[in-house]
Amino acid sequence: MDEPVYHVPALLKETIDGLNIKPDGVYVDCTFGGGGHSREILKHLGKQGKLIGFDQDEDAFKNIIDDDRFIFVHSNFKYLKNFLKFYNITKVDGVLADLGVSFHHFDDADRGFSFRFDGFLDMRMNKKSGLTAADVLNTYSEEKLADVFYLYGELYNARKIARTIVNERNNLPFKQISSFVSVLQPYFGREKEKKDMARVFQALRIEVNKELDVLKSLMSQSVDVLNDNGRLVVLTYHSLEDRLVKNFIKAGNVEGKLEKDFYGNIIAPMKAINNKVIVADEKEIALNPRARSAKLRIATVNRK
Fold this sequence. Notes:
The chain is an alpha/beta fold. It is built from 12 helices and 7 strands.
């Protein structure tokens, strides 16, 4: 019997085209996961090419590729520069990050990523480090919880939700998804319940894994490690991530604040390859519904 599909990459052709792969180049897949992107990259590399795949999730070990050109790094990609230095790699020709959470994670009740199942409120991509979602819910102040839900979930009633969580945990600490969901339900109308619940879980997941901080670090490090004409290719799945990537490519900072030289030219360390974000067509969405929210941005180093 075949193994279930771990993850179907969205916009695979567009992503590989965006990397502009050189047969003897060195590339980094920051989110190895099921290995879909990595396998495709290896098809375009010659014998002298090299690919480094990062993943902090133990589940990725089962997908490691047996290829002399491939190096697997069991770590968060925020340590990109450290590990490149460890492997005596000074520069690379392309950096890829597919930032979405795979169906594999959403469908695993034990990981706690989805409100569709009951299980422990975990949500850690690395199951051996950091706070769990339960820890966040049980220890954060009301103000800090409200910030998490408002900033990362864009929930208008974040403060009310936070207040209720603090009140409820005083009676019984949160451990299971079911008890947490039951507390949330009164705040969401039936017509928008799934969408709003998804926003709450997204906010918790982002906080638990410090996803936006890690993304900021990756973009900054990419400027340092990419060769001239090297490519940064990033797939995002929600507006918070996409906004950070768009701003960094445009302005060199995540706030999008433009700095100009004496002649009025924008000073930024990267230059967009695609000025308009790339999205999936209806044919791909029909085959892979996850692709509906995918946004692809491609940039190159802008050294003058």
